[in-house]
Amino acid sequence: MFSEFNKRGLIRPIVQILFAAIILYIGVTFIVFVAQFENGTLSAVSRPAGVEAFLPISALVGLKAWLGTGNFDPIHPAGLVIFLAAITLSVLFKRVFCSWICPIGTLSEMLARLGKRVFGRNYRMPNWLDYLLRSVKYIILGFFVWFIFLGMSGASAAEFVQTPYNMVSDIKMLQFMQHLTGVGMSVIGMIVLCSILFENFWCRYFCPYGGLLGLLSILSPYKIRRNHKTCIQCGKCTKSCPNHIVVEQASRVWSPECTGCLNCVIQCPVNNTLTFKAPLGLPAISLKTLAFYVVGLWMVFVIIARITGHWESNITLEMYQRILPLVE
After folding, report:
1. Partners of 224 in beta bridges
2. Distances from the Cα of 189 to the Cα of 74, 113, 181, 182, 183, angstroms
3. How confident is the model at residue 326 (pLDDT cuts 50, 70, 90)?
4. What is the DSSP string of 126-174?
5. Coil, strand or helix: which one is 256?
6. Is residue 241 a part of any domain in this protein?
7. Residue range 48-88, pLDDT digits in tens
8. SS3 (DSSP) at 326
9. Global pTM?
10. 70 & 50 share domain
11. What are the Cα distances from residue 31, in Å, to 36, 183, 248?
């Protein structure tokens, strides 16, 4: 069964659906949790720690505080754990977080497929505009890195972690999404439309999280490698790459845009011409093995965080009740 899924490239979509289902469950549970403050049933549903995956800036501050003071973030510990897990996966196996786990990445792929069905293809930006727009995510990333890692000391980062606003940043984020203004809805609508027309629009041009993971993924020992002796220059690898990497001309794919989706490996008609491989004679990783590593390593991070007490926030329901009115 797995070999058939491997040939058809269905393993990654299955993993994406699995994580999407988990995220949907977390989202619904968090909405119910927040609603408790309105109806007074404070013990009905517990806060799902996984919602902190949507607080990357808080995780970045938490990382700065941890490195600077040695104290692991007690307010949004799961957010920092998830951030560290994403970084680890990127350093080991390219930007697999983006193509296997991230819900925004999964949604972007769905929108791109919709565009192909409606218009028969996805459009391409002119090369000069593509290069210009790709720099935006690095500019945004540079701002946050400069502001947090260079502009804040470890002590000041630790102080921010304990501020009332950071404590309820997850709830404020939900309230923002629930009460979008016309401007906010227009921006989201524009991003959705562009994602239908241009494959991976948000991820390619504007996601600073993806920009960071892409830069770190350059360190990954595993890269797409092409055997030029057996390559027949059919171009299927390049055509199948969602990130527009010209795989058919590369000996090794170093690009930070590579997300380790292995579409090119699946589409290659000549066995062992394209492989996801590390140096020093280590064996190539198949789609099935990569799926095992991605899911397995993610579970290891979560399990260790739970065992060591670095998963659940130390904010009590009573603290939420007391703090929320202060940041309205």
Report:
1. 276
2. 36, 17, 12, 10, 10
3. low
4. -HHHHHHHHHHHHHHHHHHHIIIIITS-HHHHHHHHTSHHHHTHHHHHH
5. coil
6. yes
7. 999 999 999 999 999 999 999 999 999 999 999 999 999 99
8. helix
9. 0.92
10. yes
11. 9, 23, 47
